[in-house]
Amino acid sequence: MRVIAGRFGGRRLTAGVASVTRPTADRVREALGSVLESRGAFEGAAVLDLFAGTGALGIEALSRGAARLVAIDWDRRAIESVTENLRSLAATSEARVVRLDLLKSASRVISRLEALREGPFRLIFADPPYRELKALAPLLDQLAASKLCAPDALFVIEHAGTDALATLRKLVVVGRYSYGDSALTLLARSPQMGEGVVKSMATESSPAGSSKSERPEYAVSAAVYAGSFDPITNGHVAIIKSGLVAFERIIVAVLTNTAKKPMFTVEERMEMISDAVGGDPRVEVDRFDHGLLVNYAREKGVRIVLRGLRAVGDFEHELQMANMNRHLDPGIETVFIMANDWFYVSSTLIKEAAVLGGDLHGMVPELVEKKLREKFGR
Ligand code: PNS
Fold first, then answer.
1. How far apart are CA 64 and CA 5, in angstroms?
2. Ligand 1 atom nearest to CA at 253
3. Which among 266, 304, 321 is the best mutation to test ligand 1's pocket, defined by most ligand atoms within 8 Å of the CB?
4. Domain 18-192: which topology?
5. Partners of 95 in the β-ladder
């Protein structure tokens, strides 16, 4: 058995405990390596290898760019074997090998893992004895809910192709791969950033008229609607209104360091947005001063970027932005809402028409119309 790729690629591993641990077959490790590499799952990750056996899965991760490995097993021969493999690769300082019975009470296992002061883990392998698959569910759920697990953690469970995982409360299946008799199920944490929104809402002022006890206990769906809003148009307002059908909360974020030279100051733009939609307790008007939109969304505990689509002409640019944002942070997704009758209205055309004295009534909120009239004296 050899390490397949990365800095230890081709190096031999001892399968000393093969009779008791059933090491993951080379071709399964190879396929898994490609799947995880394409997801960027290894780079700098802390890896938790449960039922480590020879340690081949965790060592493969270290070889391909993981920063740290914690390998757990209960079998003494497995502990010896993984320790020996790490020693032969001179990788003992990057890893920790711990003897722990993972099939005992899940809470006790979690306490023991927390006491190691390692993690949070971004990649968690579990290759339990096939007959114990069902018994693993409470441990997986508790791990997913604990601080041991990074918000974007991926779980990789190896099991018999004929078996299915028990229903998990805290994890969702994001991939399943079959290789002969064995299968791999990939899982990701389910509530993720929704939890952050509930938490941040609990510390913020509640909607008018609602008391503390009336605050929602469910995960509030939220989206960031970012833009230059120079100025806000009724097209934007329509997207926000439609957005509130899909989301329970919308943060309208004004980009301040836009490459375009704005006509209105950020304060004026925020004032016009607040006047148009800020009366709705579900809408927060904020400014977005620097950095990436995905980072801003993450700071706000929101994982949806809301964009309006007016016409085919918008599509190409929006496609690029959505994919760029997805690349920058796969945990944040862009959702589009089709524009209504105001599909031909843009802030740029509004400004042009205003400068030339055009009648903008109905195309922009009242305060915007007033401010444009003041600015251009018509
Ligand atoms: O309404 P706009 O002016 O077209 O909005 C564009 C906006 C603010 C959504 C976009 O420029 C943006 O996201 N800027 C932040 C910088 C960033 O994250 N860039 C990388 C992703 S494209």
1. 7
2. 8
3. 321
4. Rossmann fold (3.40.50)
5. 69
Going by DSSP bridges, is the β-strand pair 222-227/249-255 parallel, antiparallel, or unpaired? parallel
Ligand 1 centroid, distance to 300 Cα (angstroms):
16
Asked whether 228 and 222 are in contact (CB, 8 A), the reply is no
Report pTM.
Answer: 0.51
Closest Cα to atom 14 of ligand 1: 293
Is residue 141 within 8 A of residue 109, CB to CB? The reply is no
Helix, strand, coil tally for the chain in percent (to 5): 40, 25, 35
Q: How far is the CA of 229 from the centre of ligand 1 (A)?
A: 11
Tens of pLDDT, residue by residue, the chain (378 residues): 899 999 999 999 987 655 555 667 777 888 888 888 877 899 999 999 999 999 999 999 999 999 999 999 999 999 999 999 999 999 999 999 999 999 989 999 999 999 999 999 999 999 998 888 888 999 999 999 999 999 889 999 998 888 877 778 888 777 777 777 888 888 888 644 444 333 333 233 333 333 333 333 334 588 999 999 999 999 999 999 999 999 988 999 999 876 778 999 999 999 999 999 977 878 889 998 878 999 999 888 889 999 999 988 899 999 999 999 999 998 899 999 999 888 889 999 999 999 999 999 999 999 999 999 998 875
Q: Which two tokens stand for residue 27?
A: 């071709």
- CA-nearest residue for atom 2, ligand 1, is 227
Nearest to 224 by CA among 303, 171, 331: 303
- CATH 3.40.50.620 occupies which residues in the chain? 220-376
Residues ≥6 apart with Cβ < 8 Å to 269: 228, 229, 230, 231, 232, 254, 262
* Second CATH level (architecture) for the domain 220-376: 3-Layer(aba) Sandwich (3.40)
Report whether 98 contacts 125 (CB < 8 A): no
Write out the two tokens for 300: 């706000």
Q: Which atom of ligand 1 is nearest to the CA of 291?
A: 16
Closest by CA to 280, choosing from 339, 209, 220, is 209
